[in-house]
Amino acid sequence: MDLKTFSNLPFYIKLACVLFSLFAIGYLVIIGKEILSPLIFSCLFSILLLPVSQFFEFKLKLPRSAAAMLSVILLLLFVGTIIYVIGTQIADLAKEWPDFQAQIKRSLWEFRGWVQDNFHVARAKQLRVVNTATSKVLSPDTAAVGATVLSVSAMLLFLVFTFIYSFLFLLYRSLIMKFLESVFLKENTATVHEIVEQVQYMIRKYIIGLLIEMAIVAVVVSVAFSLMGVKYAILLGLITGLFNVVPYIGIFTALVISSIVSLGTSADSSQVIWVMGTLVVTHLVDSNVLLPLVVGSKVRINALMTILGVVIGEMLWGIPGMFLSIPVIAVLKIIFDRVESLHAWGIIMGDEERKQNKLATRFMVRNKKVKVDKHDDIAD
Fold first, then answer.
1. Using one digit for the tens of pLDDT, what is the confidence trace for 232-290?
2. Could you tell me if 44 and 202 are in contact, meaning their C-beta atoms sit under 8 angstroms apart?
3. Is 350 helix (H, G, I), strand (E, B) or coil?
4. Where in the chain are the domains?
5. Closest to 271 (Cα-Cα) out of 322, 242, 236
6. Which of 9, 148, 203, 353 could form a disulfide with 13, with the two C-beta atoms 3.0–4.6 Å apart?
7. pTM for the predicted model, two decimal places
8. CA dihedral angle for residue 78, residue 80, residue 85, residue 89, rounded to 10 degrees
9. DSSP 246
10. Would you give the distance in Å from CA 36 to the centre of its chain?
11. DSSP states of 271-316
């Protein structure tokens, strides 16, 4: 069935076909998480590393396999350094776990006293509400420890496959490009090249912008927490920078983690207020100044699609889905903008309000000028 025949079908048949396709794609995405998730991460990393690999290959005259391997090793060193710094900070925090646990309990006791004095709710009643959550957080059982070990093992396995796939993508990039050309008709070859080049440019600029933004946020938060006397300031700064990659939800998660760590490591309970205020101000400056300045308009997606993408990504793939949602939506928008039958989906994903406002203002000014000219002509 060609596109013309499909467009002539009744609406309910077209709606059923679209819904069936969406359900089928969603089911395949869910069951294929273990394969697709590292593949997409590897695709993003390989696009980021492509200029490095080309430098080794064409400037230093290395074989493509050696150039790809060196590029992946550089990425591995970068990721390994971040993991090592975070791991050492978490190890130091684990050594102080008994003191951390006792401090949390003291802070909760003081907070329950403040609630009792101001809201007249007895400590016993408050204790029944928070006791279960506190015991789960502060007294991990064997099952929780086992789940943590399995999660760490799964993460390490995920990283191994991601680096292997990144190397293979760089090694066989010419073969992949020939495959994409052969999948579509010859008259669409120019469009395929345009989409691939646009996706590479957008993804590379977007990831570099995010890395710069992440580094700035991590440094600013670490310095601010250090000046405030917060313990594990570097750990909390790195966590804030990493979680800031996830729009809207990431900064809230970092705020909760930082507040808990500050509450458990500081004798002054008011320090938590300063920690929360610092993160809120950092988020406001980052969203309104740093993000438009550093990342710019590399990914022009409106806030509605951003939030929906993050939520759906978390529902499908968990934390990896939250990180991948924005690049995937951006790639889909590039494709939708260049396929005529899917152009409407590209419009709903885009953030063209500012551009439309400029066009509307220009149109109003032009009409006003035309009316003035006509009025002058009539007066003459």
1. 888 899 989 888 877 777 788 888 888 888 877 776 767 888 888 999 898 888 877 77
2. no
3. strand
4. 299-353
5. 236
6. 9
7. 0.71
8. 150
9. S
10. 17
11. HHHHHHHHHHHHHHHIIIIIIIIIITTSS-B-HHHHHHHHHHHHHH
The amino acid that residue 196 corresponds to is V
Nearest to 332 by CA among 315, 320, 349, 319: 349
- For 142-181, how does the pLDDT look when each residue is reduced to its tens digit (9 = 90+)? 444 444 444 566 777 888 888 999 999 999 998 988 888 8
Cβ atoms of 250 and 91 closer than 8 Å: no
Per-residue pLDDT of 63-120, as tens digits, reads 999 999 999 999 999 888 888 888 888 888 788 777 777 777 777 767 667 667 776 6
Report how far apart, in Å, the C-alpha atoms of 133 and of each of 97, 128, 137 are: 17, 10, 6
Phi-psi region of 230 (alpha: psi -120 to 50; beta: other; left: phi over 0): beta
Partners of 301 in the β-ladder: 350
Length of the chain counted residue by residue: 380
Classify each residue of 159-184 as buried b or exposed e, where b means 16 or more C-beta atoms within 10 Å of its C-beta.
bebbbebbbebbbebeeeeeeeeeee
Instruction: Find where tokens 């997606």 sit.
Output: 301
Contact 46, 173 (CB under 8 A): yes
Burial of 302 (0-12, 13-18, 19+ CB in 10 A): middle
Token code pair at residue 77 = 């060193």
